[in-house]
Design goal:
Elements lengths: L6 H7 L18 H22 E5 L13 E6 L23 E5 L4 E3 L2 E3 L2 E8 L4 E5 L2 E4 L2 E2 L15 H4 L15 H6 L4 E2 L2 E3 L4 E5 L9 H4 L2 E2 L3 E11 L12 H13 L12 E2 L2
Antiparallel strand pairs: 1-2, 2-14, 3-6, 3-14, 4-5, 6-12, 7-8, 7-11, 8-9, 10-11, 12-13, 14-15
């Protein structure tokens, strides 16, 4: 004999209420307009972060070796050195300090393709406002005390330069695209008893590769307003030369992109990935 009693009838006969079936869920598909709005929102967030919080920076020269190498790609923090803002109360703000590696806008323009252009540079902050600075045999003295500089290139008899290593014993000579006439002409106004005195609201920058760095010795002080931020870490490093980042033609840039694609794994400096900048 066949038992036709269902589970629900069995529970009802046993005095238990039958389970309530779950309501059917109707999934609404996202419209094209909603998808576009979501992508636009994401793009706005990315652009905001890139413009106000972080910035990508590529090292095109060897002026900061060995701290930074040609082909290092850095994430730059734009908020720490920015003026404090009420609408971002949780952000940590501070003034630049001696020894910081900083990204800034060069205070004098370079001529690029016949037009003046203010370049972004990265150097180490050596002199604060009111500091007295001089160098003897490549050793930097700040306010009379030798500055510890384990990161800097050492001066030897082979690389010694009277102007660069005994600064400011010799005045700068105007050189196109390196030493502007304004710095050479006004240089003596900042000298006191053989020291270069950093004026208020300005900073003195040097490259760690002291004998291959066009820095404050050659073009002067950096105003506080020109300081953009500080590099946090190296997110990618690719073996490169200075010429690789000085390609002006579209064909040369395309050839470089192809070279990077073909040698991405072999020429990437994997040991420098996420290397913190100090």
């Amino acid at each position: 004999m066949t038992d036709n009693t269902t589970p629900a009838n069995s529970q009802a006969q046993a005095g238990k209420p039958a389970p309530i079936p779950a309501p059917a869920v109707h999934r609404r598909h996202e419209t094209l307009l909603e998808s576009i709005a979501g992508l636009c929102t994401l793009l706005v967030i990315i652009l905001f972060a890139y413009g106000f919080i972080i910035q990508n920076f590529v090292i095109p020269s060897g002026s900061m070796e060995p701290t930074l190498l040609i082909g290092d790609h850095l994430f730059v923090d734009r908020t720490t050195f920015a003026p404090p803002s009420r609408w971002m109360p949780l952000v940590h703000y501070r003034e630049p300090r001696r020894g910081d590696v900083v990204v800034f806008i060069k205070p004098v323009p370079d001529e690029v393709n016949g037009r003046p252009k203010y370049q972004y540079l990265v150097k180490r902050l050596i002199g604060m406002p009111a500091d007295h600075i001089h160098m003897i045999d490549g050793i930097v003295y700040v306010n009379g005390a030798a500055l510890p500089q384990p990161y800097a290139e050492r001066t030897t008899s082979a690389n010694f330069s009277p102007f660069a290593d005994d600064f400011p014993a010799l005045p700068p000579i105007p050189i196109p695209d390196e030493t502007p006439r304004s710095w050479a002409a006004g240089f003596t106004r900042h000298l006191v008893n053989g020291d270069l005195v950093v004026p208020p609201g300005n900073y003195f920058m040097l490259g760690d590769n002291r004998h291959n760095s066009a820095d404050s010795r050659y073009w002067g002080f950096v105003p506080r307003a020109n300081i953009v931020g500080r590099p946090l870490f190296n997110y990618w490093s690719f073996k490169s030369n200075e010429e690789d980042y000085d390609r002006s033609s579209s064909v040369a840039r395309l050839a470089w992109m192809i070279h990077v694609a073909l040698h991405l794994f072999t020429d990437t400096r994997w040991d420098r990935t996420f290397h913190v900048i100090r």
